[in-house]
Specification:
The protein is mainly alpha-helical and 900 residues long. Among the domains are: 401-601, no CATH class; 671-843, no CATH class. The protein is globular, with a radius of gyration of 29 Å. The two termini are 28 Å apart. Homotetramer. Belongs to the PEPCase type 1 family.
């Protein structure tokens, strides 16, 4: 692959050597397996596109080479460009392009110490912290797991190459092994033929928990112990929505929740059993050579291991007994035998804490001699940390459902129980009063003698399954119940009513406060929801029974949604509304005596909260983090951030270090400047909101324009998730899920949700000096503009214009596209003025090079996609056309990376 020459205003791109190497091997694979003709066609199209990107004279679209492709060639060419983007992603991840300076705990601690904040203060914060990446099944991962697996094998082989190896451990030539994996990629079908089921999503995400998080988190904690000089509690954990998120997904019911938890338990215990087996081989200490404390001898004697060969090896016998008990635990909790059964008999562990106690006994025995080196780290230390972090449940599973469903279910329960004939007709005050009366009693509303509708039956089964899970796996397996479209206090109380049906809410007796085993959490999504959030939480905390529960727990979570707030109000209004809501909630929580835990519902694209998590967390208002934060990780970002152990460590370090800084570092803006900046943002947000709403919701025919310009119809048919693309059968933008809304605009290279309205707001803002001051010195706006800059750089209105012929009403389409083009130019010019740059990404050369390297490989895919869409919508029924569209969607998403 050649080095790209500069445009008149941009420096030359020095290509990553890994991209050159892998790109050359891919070319060899295409020649060997696709034939010389395909190789030459691909190379011609690539060269022509690169020349256009260089701005070479005569390099225009008239001879792109695409017209010479028949349908079979088109499929193969698209596959080749998709694979190049996948390999480029791998190369960039290996070179740390995504890693940000200072985004590690050691750097964060040093930065805090420069402010006079010592390690004791950091440890004090971590003692009550909780940081959780929560993996969700939101469907923007278009690649099959098989493709990702081959990519990861190539990454492993490249690590061997880094170490100077020329052969694999099996004696295979390393270059040939990498070539073979790329050849396997070339011959692996990239598209799913069948729609994903929830069980598939559970198994897909389980691979990340098993292969990445289980080994990575203990290793990170060991690193942080060295940095901090002490052992912090397990503050960084993992969560999941997959199997518990029912909002708009009728395929998630009690069996899916049970399956998700069971599979997580199986994976966690299998990991522990493997670790114990390895420890048994390692800890060969003999009583003839080492002093062994009585507690370890007792464990060894209780194990039942009477092997003569291990008579003088109490640690091995103790571990044999622990293994036997854990194997029995596996059978008790999952109903299955472990892969390596024990020949000994043992009682199942009642809790993971009981299992940990036995491991600690072994560790204390090892620490009793010498300098303690045998106990303070190593495999045993990592296993103890893993048990603390993952328990028997592996990942905490969130439950989620829409408030409208809760409302209907509670109404049916109340009616069947003879309590209230028409709950839905009650106003908010009457609902609250009624729900509080019910929560004051442990008498359930449901009865096995009553006949309920399908919805109520399903929801009751879910909460009973959650209660069973608590008894099996421990209360940490499910701790959060998210309420979508939460708009009132009654929306939150209704969840407590449902939890009470399964004993997960217990009314207080004899003056004791109630107990809630699962926390009801409102999700504030739209701009209006975010504005109402402080008043709703004030009223909620004002209820004595709720105040008692929250005080006993010590904290309360609120979830804030990036996707729907963006679809509702545009990028800058969404971002600012989220900031203001977080800021306004902080005193509400302080008055209630509760630590605030914000759950950020971020996606991959800028229009859904994407961008640098390190910068975004630091940009949160002071006082809103407090060491407690949860963040969703969705779709293609799961593989991008956690697809390999090295990349996962980088991203988890960034999340942790940013949380420390946001919680402890002093505010960098004075109160006076904060007031000025806030007033300016209010004005910017107001104008951006007006421009965005006028286009998207105020322009007649805009929804038809969107559905015809972008491949939204075709995306809705992709088999990339179990959830429908729209909440209802309506084609209104309001009812469309935010994910396909953002994803579709990205495919057509408009990326409208990530920038529209900002340009008009910047153009109307008169005090340019103030704007530049804010952009330079205020972390909030600096982060927002950085994300805006990235999405502007990835958009291409010239390519987007090629989609215009797909719009039936050409006059209206041209007019709307003209407004979009003008808005983009205003956003571009306003951003450069605010950041003091002469071109986009001038101050971020690594990202600039990454994006400009990819653009020549995306343009032909867009041009092919347009032609295929025309033929598909004209009624051509050749199955290769549909396959080509889906392949192009896959390839463009892979090249753009954070596009959904």
């Amino acid at each position: 692959m050649a080095t790209l020459s500069p445009s008149p205003s941009a420096p030359a791109i020095t290509q990553n050597p890994d991209i050159r190497y892998l790109g050359r091997l891919l070319g060899d694979v295409i020649r060997a397996y696709g034939g010389e003709k395909l190789y030459k066609q691909t190379e011609y199209i690539r060269s022509a596109s690169v020349d256009r990107a260089r701005g070479l004279q005569g390099a225009d679209l008239t001879d792109s080479g695409l017209d010479a492709l028949d349908l079979d060639d088109t499929l193969n060419f698209t596959r080749g460009f998709m694979l190049f983007s996948m390999l480029a992603n791998l190369a960039e991840d290996r070179q740390g392009v995504a890693a940000e300076p200072g985004a590690d705990v050691a750097s964060a601690v040093a930065r805090l110490e420069s402010h006079g904040i010592d390690k004791d203060a950091v440890l004090g914060l971590l003692a009550h912290s909780l940081m959780v990446p929560v993996l969700t099944a939101h469907p923007t991962e278009v690649r099959r797991k098989s493709m990702i697996d081959h990519k990861n094998r190539i990454a492993d082989l490249m690590h061997l190459k880094d170490a100077g190896r020329i052969e694999t451990a099996e004696g295979e030539n390393l270059d040939e092994a990498i070539f073979r994996q790329i050849a396997l990629l070339w011959q692996t079908r990239p598209l799913r033929r069948e729609k994903l089921f929830v069980a598939d999503e559970i198994d897909n995400v389980l691979a990340y928990f098993r292969d990445t998080f289980l080994p990575v988190l203990p290793a990170l904690y060991a690193r942080w112990e060295r940095v901090l000089g002490a052992r912090p509690q397990s503050f960084l954990r993992v969560g999941s929505w997959i199997g518990g998120d029912r909002d708009g997904n009728p395929f998630v019911q009690a069996p899916q929740l049970e399956f998700a938890l069971k599979r997580g338990c199986q994976a966690a215990i299998a990991y522990y059993l493997d670790a114990l087996h390895a420890l048994g081989a390692e800890l060969s200490l003999s009583t003839e050579l080492a002093h062994v404390p009585q507690a370890v001898l007792d464990l060894a004697d209780a194990s039942g291991d009477a092997s003569p060969s291990r008579k003088d090896e109490p640690y091995r016998r103790a571990l044999s007994g622990i293994y036997a008990r854990l194997a029995a635990t596996c059978t008790a909790l999952t109903g299955g035998q472990p892969a390596r059964p024990s020949s000994l008999k043992g009682d199942a562990y009642a809790t993971p804490q009981e299992f940990r106690r036995d491991l600690v006994t072994v560790a204390q025995g090892l620490a009793s001699e010498g300098d303690g080196a045998l106990a303070t780290g190593g495999a045993l230390g990592r296993l103890i940390r893993a048990v603390e972090t993952f328990g028997f449940h592996l990942a905490t599973l969130d439950m989620r459902q829409n408030s409208a469903v809760h409302e209907r279910v509670v109404a049916e329960l109340l009616k069947a129980a003879g309590v209230e004939a028409d709950y839905l007709a009650l106003d908010e005050y009457a609902r609250i009063a009624l729900l509080r009366r019910e929560l004051a009693s442990n008498r359930p509303l449901g009865s096995r003698f009553s006949a309920y509708g399908e919805e109520t039956t399903s929801e009751l089964a879910i909460v009973h399954a959650a209660a069973t899970a608590h008894r099996l796996y421990g209360p940490a397996c499910i701790t959060h119940y998210i309420i979508s479209k939460a708009e009132s206090v009654s929306d939150m109380l209704e969840v407590s009513i449902l939890l009470k049906e399964a004993g997960l809410w217990q009314a207080g007796v004899d003056g004791a406060p109630p107990q809630a085993a699962i926390m009801a959490i409102p999700l504030f999504e739209t701009i209006a929801d975010l504005e109402a959030a402080p008043a709703i939480m004030t009223a909620y905390f004002g209820l004595p029974e709720i105040a008692g529960v929250v005080k006993a727990r010590g904290h309360q979570e609120v979830m804030i949604g990036y996707s729907d707030s963006n679809k509702d109000g545009g990028y800058i209004t969404s971002t600012w509304s989220l900031y203001k809501a977080s800021q306004a909630l902080e005193p509400v929580f302080a008055d209630a005596g509760a630590a605030m835990q914000l759950f950020h519902g971020r996606g991959g694209a800028v229009g859904r909260g994407g961008g640098s998590a390190f910068a975004a967390i630091q940009a949160q208002p002071r006082g809103s983090v407090q060491g407690r934060i949860r963040i969703t990780e969705q779709g293609e970002m799961i593989a991008a951030k956690f697809g390999s152990r090295d990349v996962a460590m980088t991203n988890l370090e960034a999340m942790t270090s940013a949380t420390l800084l946001a919680s402890l570092e002093p505010e960098g803006v004075s109160d006076r400047d904060a007031a000025r900046f806030s007033a300016a943002m209010d004005a910017l947000s107001k104008n951006a909101f007006a421009a965005y709403r006028d286009l998207v919701y105020g322009t007649e025919g805009f929804k038809e324009f969107f559905r015809q310009l972008t491949p939204i119809q075709e995306i809705s048919g992709l088999k990339i998730g179990s959830r429908p693309a729209s909440r209802t059968k309506s084609n209104a933008i309001e009812d469309l899920r935010a994910i396909p809304w953002v994803f579709s605009w990205a495919q057509a290279r408009v990326m409208l949700p990530g920038w529209y309205g900002v340009g008009q707001a910047l153009a109307q803002f008169e005090d340019k000096a103030l704007l530049a001051d804010m952009g330079q010195h205020w972390s909030f706006l600096k982060s927002a503009l950085a994300n805006l800059e990235m999405v502007l750089a990835k958009s291409d209105l010239g390519i987007a214009a090629r989609y215009l012929p797909l719009v039936e009403d050409q006059a209206a389409g041209e007019a709307m596209f003209g407004r979009i083009r003008e808005g983009w130019q205003q956003a571009h010019d306003g951003l450069l003025a605010a950041t003091g740059q002469s071109r986009l990404l001038e101050k971020n050369p690594a990202l600039d090079a990454s994006i400009r390297l990819r653009l020549p490989y995306i343009e032909p895919l867009n041009l092919l996609q347009v032609e295929l869409l025309k033929r598909h919508r004209a009624g051509e029924d050749d199955p290769r056309i549909k396959e080509g569209i889906e392949l192009s969607i896959n390839a463009i998403a892979t090249a753009l990376r954070n596009s959904g």
